[in-house]
Design brief:
Structural class: alpha/beta
Strand order of the largest sheet: 3-2-1-4-5-6-7-11
Radius of gyration: 21 Å
Number of helices: 7
């Protein structure tokens, strides 16, 4: 037998086993602009995983079209078809778990979650909120900030706990409020900052860098401060290539 006929196990090419991408399920209620930011990050290999499903409690949510256009499983689960919040969250849990996610991302999901849901996915659910938490938990954050005459506003990514908008903060982006800002201008500027920081937080989690504990959040093993990591107005504006009219 010639050397060319001989096959040795030691000469076989050893190919590393493919590692399954970490899986993300996104929950939405509306247009899904933050979902689009996550989809774009994924398309540029900057998300660290794969969005495997998008679920909406509103059947006509535009975000479902965004998902379908990106080839992502889009699921409408209307909450009005259920008799109670508990019944709806039970059904939602079943749909989510069917997709075996590593992370649940709330991207404009306008539902208060039941304790059962929160505890089921505790430590692997992220939310984004349009304020510099703990300021302005709840709704109408821009109107409340303007009414108070604050000089700084922003947005926060945080882990979801049973306290509404009260889980450990991961990252924030600040915005200087100008004298001519309105609810609409704040909404637009804050949206841009949300689209900047949400993919960052998701990628940290999927890469194993970001973790939740009962006492807070850690990044690379270091406990994050109460406000998480905060991008200043100047840093965020530079990242977004904004024209800065502030002195």
């Amino acid at each position: 037998m010639s050397s060319t006929d001989y096959t040795s196990d030691t000469l076989k090419e050893i190919e590393p086993e493919a590692t399954d991408a970490r899986r993300v399920v996104v929950l939405i209620s509306g247009s899904g602009s933050n979902l689009q930011a996550l989809i774009e990050a994924q398309s540029h290999d900057r998300l660290g995983g794969e969005i495997v499903a998008v679920i909406s409690n509103e059947a006509d949510a535009y975000g479902l079209k965004r998902a379908r256009d990106a080839g992502i499983d889009a699921v409408a689960l209307p909450h009005r078809e259920y008799d109670s919040r508990e019944a709806y969250d039970g059904a939602l849990i079943k749909v989510i778990e069917r997709h075996e996610p590593d992370l649940i991302v709330l991207a404009g999901f306008m539902r208060i979650l039941t304790p059962r849901f929160v505890q089921r996915f505790l430590g692997r659910t992220l939310n984004i909120h349009p304020s510099l938490l703990p300021a302005y938990q709840g709704l109408n954050t821009h109107a409340r900030a303007l009414a108070d005459g604050v000089s700084e506003h922003g947005c926060s990514v945080h882990f979801v706990t049973e306290e509404l908008d009260g889980g450990p903060v991961v990252i924030q982006a600040a915005l200087k409020v100008s004298a001519d800002d309105t609810i609409e201008t704040l909404k637009e500027k804050i949206h841009a900052r949300e689209h900047l920081i949400y993919p960052i937080a998701v990628s940290w989690f999927l890469d194993g860098r970001l973790q939740y504990s009962g006492t807070g959040a850690t990044l690379d093993g270091t406990v994050l401060p109460p406000q998480g990591l905060r991008l200043s107005h100047e840093d965020a504006a530079e990242e977004l290539d904004e024209l800065d009219d502030h002195p």
